[in-house]
Amino acid sequence: AQGAAGVRKKGAAEPVLLTDKFEIASNGKPMTAVLLAALIEDGKLRWDSTLFELFGDTLRGMKPGWRDVTLRQLIDHRSGLASDPLGLLIARTLLSTASPTRQRLDIVEHLLARPPQNPPDTKLAYTSAAYVIAAAAMERVTGRAWEDLMRERLFAPLGMSSVGIGAPASPHRVDQPWGHGYPFHAPLFGRGQSDTPIDPASIFASVPRAAAPAGLVHMSAPDWAKFITLVLRGHPANPARHAALLRDDSFAILYEPDPRNQVPRGWGGGRYAGNWVVTTKPWAKGNRPGDSGRLLWNQGDDTRWHSTAYIVPELDFAVLIACNRTRQWEAGHEVAEALVSEFVRDERAPGSGLQGRWEGLIGGLRVTLEFQGGELARPESVLVSLDQENERIPITTVTDHDGHVRFETSKGGGFDGTFNVNRSALAGTWTQKGFTRWAVFKRSAPILALRDN
What we know:
Radius of gyration: 23 Å
Helix content: 10-25%
Strand content: 15-25%
Shape: globular
Oligomer: single chain
Largest sheet: 8 strands, antiparallel, barrel
Number of helices: 11
Distance between the termini: 9 Å
Number of strands: 20
């Protein structure tokens, strides 16, 4: 299924079309990781190739702490780099007239002339600079620009003809979507609106091209789906597995997370692998022995554009969302979960009242409900927040009037929604501290499959 909604520019009439091009920001990082895997298969690099092997004889002043950092540690964000020095990338390249390849090497030299922020391989710190370094390494061993390598090894074989770099629209024209965000990538002196349309002619319309390997490519949603299909079908957990462009073992290496790669607190749990957060969800579980409900997800945001991708290998299913406005973190998850609810069939036995255990999602966070005592909640009725250290929050009030359900917790959060036809699921909204989120709860012990459309 596919669809488009909205306008190309706030205040303009031109509608968004399915063929329109969107920057996908950090959702381009998994593409760089696939290119790296392809060059490793060629024997030009190794997962354990070190920064000293790659740059030691060309860069001035590389600090000793970087000598043994590997390419795998870079793409898994365990290299010792500080978390996302986006300002550095912009400041050092915004007005540069050098080629993107030369700019990337300059960024590498600048970063490696300072000691690691953390001892390498001891802490996960998400940083776009790691993918710029990885791209510079690929350019170093091939003598070719990252842009050319991507076109030759990935975009052309997959038929991704709409791909480009930077803002997709022509200067001063609304012939493609415009990005929307703060005028200078961030509030200036605390001022500015996050939905300001940015003319493609502006030097602030996009992050500098040197950062393209970290997420500056634009493309149509159908072309992006071609890459996502590559990952989905190449994943070892997919029952319809069919690897393309890479060998089976390369996909396995890319998407098997290091158990130490725990994502930062507040991200909903999971571990990094190939720039995907790898986690499990009850609704993502397949029907084969060993299926665990694996979900790979990633969000991209370059202060102009936002994108969200969910890959569900056990169900051979994926969701992609592209938006021409920044800072849609929560909305991206909510829309993705809503699409999951629409397209994944839940074959549960019908129910009657609320009693029992329910599995749910509130704005992308995993929760369970444990109802006791019929319509009048007892103290043992609780909401358990699985992604917040299994915190148990008492449910204080519950009402069910002709299938319209409301309940509140001791922390002030409340649900307002309705049963489905056979009372096996509840869908509605969650309101807490002035914020409203999409929410769905389903009776335990699901059997999941894709809908027959």
